[in-house]
């Protein structure tokens, strides 16, 4: 049993989540070369303009058309700047579950944008697409990404031992691979009750460095 997600855009108070466009290539390449993105993801490094263009024009749209998931470019509503990306992948259309990954550009960290984008995607996935489970996996030392999962109501289910290869810089400044554990988080539709209200209580969205 397979399906495809519709080619849509999602709007929040501060963000627009939309398909990637050719005009995003330069900003995407810059974001993906950030040291924290290199450390916690498996993107090529250095991440070239050609890598970005291949993602924007080929890989990202193919995720949706092949039924595997959907990729959103996250942009700031007021400026249209590229804030980051949210990627729903490994969609299981029978179980109605998917896995989510996300990245936030260095300039946009500390504004709660990751929580806002991830929450909006989860609400769309559950309410509009009738999915029943969302899964996130965070590297054991990626505490900022774990904070995002906690903020939107995810439940920690356990640890996948030695399941990921992160990267760290050695004394000479060269990147080297390091094996790490993954923490598995899940979100079900009922977990979202009251989350949006809690995120916007007080002084607005939570402030911390967020990336994945």
From TrEMBL:
Cross-referenced InterPro entries: Acyl_CoA_acyltransferase (IPR016181), GNAT_dom (IPR000182), Ribosomal_N-acetyltransferase (IPR051908)
Pfam families: Acetyltransf_3
Residue stretches making up the N-acetyltransferase domain: 15-171
Protein name: GNAT family N-acetyltransferase
UniProt organism field: Streptomyces galbus
PANTHER family reported for this sequence: ACETYLTRANSFERASE, RIBOSOMAL-PROTEIN-SERINE ACETYLTRANSFERASE
Gene3D superfamilies hit by this protein: 3.40.630.30
């Amino acid at each position: 049993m397979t399906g495809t997600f519709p080619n849509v855009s999602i709007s929040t108070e501060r963000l627009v989540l939309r398909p990637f466009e050719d005009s995003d290539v330069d900003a995407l390449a810059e974001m993906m070369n950030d040291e924290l993105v290199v450390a916690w993801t498996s993107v090529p490094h250095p991440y070239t303009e050609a890598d970005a263009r291949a993602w924007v024009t080929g890989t990202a749209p193919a995720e949706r058309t092949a039924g595997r998931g959907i990729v959103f470019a996250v942009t700031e509503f007021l400026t249209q700047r590229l804030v980051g990306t949210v990627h729903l992948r490994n969609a299981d259309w029978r179980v109605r579950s998917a896995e989510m990954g996300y990245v936030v550009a260095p300039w946009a960290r500390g504004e709660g944008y990751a929580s806002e984008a991830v929450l909006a995607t989860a609400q769309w996935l559950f309410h509009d697409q009738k999915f029943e489970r969302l899964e996130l996996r965070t590297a054991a030392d990626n505490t900022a990404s774990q904070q995002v999962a906690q903020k939107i109501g995810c439940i920690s289910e356990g640890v996948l031992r030695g399941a990921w290869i992160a990267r760290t810089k050695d004394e000479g400044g060269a990147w080297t691979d390091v094996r790490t554990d993954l923490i598995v988080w899940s979100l079900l539709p009922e977990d979202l009750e009251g989350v949006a209200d809690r995120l916007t209580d007080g002084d607005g969205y939570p402030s911390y460095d967020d990336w994945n």
